[in-house]
Write a structure and sequence with these properties.
This protein has two domains: 71 residues; 42 residues, no CATH class. It is flat and about 70 Å long. It has three helices and two strands. A hairpin with a 2-residue loop joins strand 1 and strand 2. The longest helix is centred in the last third of the chain and has 32 residues. Helices cover 57% and strands 32% of the residues. By secondary structure, it is of the alpha+beta class. Keywords: Signal. It comes from Aliiruegeria haliotis. This is Endonuclease YncB(Thermonuclease family).
């Protein structure tokens, strides 16, 4: 029981390891990281000539399970059995794109990024003032 409580407390302890400065900087740069990821994705779509989406599908996974076994000496025993469990997996699926719309989206993302760089630098400056090294 003690081990279970320690395992449940582990994620809370790991979150507590980040300093307030790190939390502030991560929050300040979050939007810029999203825009950068979208720009890379859009550029990849234009280079390939098609987009890629992740499609979920269900597959079965064979696992070892504990179950009840035969009765031995008047008490039930434990047995290891193979069992099949459903598992959601993902595969990449190509999708058609409109190249002019993708180019327009890329241009808008780059404009948005230019504005966000200024805002992000201001937020980082505020973090530096609030939490000096």
């Amino acid at each position: 029981m003690t081990r279970l409580i320690l395992l449940l407390a582990l994620p809370v302890a790991l979150v507590a390891c980040t300093t307030p400065r790190e939390t502030c900087l991560k929050s300040a740069t979050k939007d810029l990281a999203v825009i950068d990821r979208l720009i890379i994705e859009t550029q990849g779509n234009l280079q390939r000539g098609y987009g890629v989406t992740r499609e979920p599908y269900t597959a079965s996974r064979v696992d070892v399970c504990v179950g009840s076994g035969r009765y031995r000496y008047g008490s039930p025993g434990l047995a290891w059995n193979y069992c099949s469990r459903p598992e959601t997996r993902y595969r990449d699926k190509p999708v058609a794109i409109d190249r002019t719309a993708e180019k327009r989206k890329l241009a808008e993302l780059k404009q948005t990024r230019a504005k966000l760089v200024k805002e992000t630098n201001q937020r980082i400056g505020q973090c530096d003032l609030r939490y000096p090294n």
